[in-house]
Amino acid sequence: LRKAGITGVGSYAPDNIVTNHDLEDMVDTSDEWIQSRTGIKERRVADESTATSDIAYQAAKKALNDAGIDAEELDLILVATITPDMPFPSTACILQDKLGAEDAAAFDLGAGCSGFVYGLSVATQFVQADTYDNILVIGAETLSKILDWEDRDTCVLFGDGAGAAIVQPVETGGVLSNVLGADGSGGELLRLPAGGSRQPACLDTVENNLHYIEMSGNAVFKFAVRIMGKAALKALKKADLEREDVDFFVPHQANTRIISAAAKRLKLNDDQIIINLDKYGNTSAASIPIALAEAVEAGEINKGDNIVLVGFGAGLTWAASVIEW
Ligand code: ACO
């Protein structure tokens, strides 16, 4: 089998910063509560005219540049998102047009916050099978558009952004293992109830606030703590590696308490954990690739490092990948 690796990364977030203090003016909350319960200090919020494909485009350009390839060379564009521009056409097709990636197939992938790692796994298979050489995988979200800004349980947690990776054949290292999982019985814990075929958009769904994220925070918290360590250990085993072999851990950026619990299970030191949720909040499918891109750009991750990506989210879903950088 050919080896597949990440050969370029890029990220983007809208300029507009909303701090916890800004939120204190909008809902009954406090900077102290948000920081102590989640680790979040601020998040980015897109303006009215900006959609997911717009921010995906910015991250994609950077990743293409980093990998040194042109959009015309892309064979496949995969956008992981729960906030597509619209139900159809797919955000990946909209992005394909914006990039001028004429030769690329394109589709969206819905796996909640695990979406990017799911996408990386799909891209890996296409490269290993010799089907494609140049794949763009993006996690991109404008979660601000599906938040009830009067609901303190959810609006303080999320933010907007995009992270992109170019996946290509590599000679050494690359993606060593992928683990994907799902538990649909937990779907009700985290969802956007209306706007699909079950409850099409109508006056009632709007009046009843059914077009916003609905979440049982506590249950999701417990699921996340349980699954992150488990998925990471399974991926390490598949890659024939031990916990001691891990150089960096790039977890889904939802909550520092969840990340700490997982890191403890993996016996990692603080300096091995990539965290940027203080700046962006939870950007769902975008969180892992943004964290990865920033760590690479900052020179933290270097050639030969073993890194573990782990996501969990709506579905419920989870996914882990081990990569030799
Ligand atoms: N400000 C102030 N108080 C608040 C706020 C707020 N923003 N939100 C909730 N509270 C209150 C609650 O009402 C509750 O009050 P009560 O005790 O009087 O009822 C109290 O704070 C404690 O609430 P808990 O829910 O017990 O707080 P917890 O410690 O569990 O933290 C949190 C809540 C941060 C949501 C946590 O459960 C969590 O992070 N869950 C995981 C969420 C997550 O990761 N979701 C994303 C998954 S990814 C995807 O696919 C989108």
From TrEMBL:
Instruction: Enumerate the Pfam families for this protein.
Output: ACP_syn_III, ACP_syn_III_C
GO CC annotation, single: cytoplasm
Catalytic residues (UniProt): 113, 252, 282
Mind telling me which InterPro entries this protein's record contains? ACP_syn_III_C, ACP_syn_III_N, FabH, Thiolase-like
Keyword terms of this UniProt record: Acyltransferase, Cytoplasm, Fatty acid biosynthesis, Fatty acid metabolism, Lipid biosynthesis, Lipid metabolism, Multifunctional enzyme, Transferase
Q: Where is the Beta-ketoacyl-[acyl-carrier-protein] synthase III N-terminal domain?
A: 107-184
Name the Enzyme Commission number(s) assigned to this protein: 2.3.1.180
Q: Does the keyword Translocase apply?
A: no
Catalytic reaction annotation: 3-methylbutanoyl-CoA + malonyl-[ACP] + H(+) = 5-methyl-3-oxohexanoyl-[ACP] + CO2 + CoA; 2-methylpropanoyl-CoA + malonyl-[ACP] + H(+) = 4-methyl-3-oxopentanoyl-[ACP] + CO2 + CoA; (2S)-2-methylbutanoyl-CoA + malonyl-[ACP] + H(+) = (4S)-4-methyl-3-oxohexanoyl-[ACP] + CO2 + CoA; malonyl-[ACP] + acetyl-CoA + H(+) = 3-oxobutanoyl-[ACP] + CO2 + CoA
State one molecular function term (GO): 3-oxoacyl-[acyl-carrier-protein] synthase activity
Any single biological process term in GO: fatty acid biosynthetic process
Q: Domain named Beta-ketoacyl-[acyl-carrier-protein] synthase III C-terminal: which ranges?
A: 236-325
Pathway in which this enzyme or protein is active:
Lipid metabolism; fatty acid biosynthesis
In this chain, the stretch annotated as ACP-binding covers 253-257
Using the UniProt record, name the top-level EC class of this enzyme in a single word. transferase
Is Acyltransferase a UniProt keyword of this protein? yes
Q: Where in the cell is it found?
A: Cytoplasm
Q: Give the record's subunit note.
A: Homodimer.
The UniProt comment on domains reads: The last Arg residue of the ACP-binding site is essential for the weak association between ACP/AcpP and FabH.
Q: What role does it play?
A: Catalyzes the condensation reaction of fatty acid synthesis by the addition to an acyl acceptor of two carbons from malonyl-ACP. Catalyzes the first condensation reaction which initiates fatty acid synthesis and may therefore play a role in governing the total rate of fatty acid production. Possesses both acetoacetyl-ACP synthase and acetyl transacylase activities. Its substrate specificity determines the biosynthesis of branched-chain and/or straight-chain of fatty acids.
Similarity section:
Belongs to the thiolase-like superfamily. FabH family.
Spell out the protein name for this chain: Beta-ketoacyl-[acyl-carrier-protein] synthase III
Species per Swiss-Prot/TrEMBL record: Selenihalanaerobacter shriftii
- What gene is it encoded by? fabH
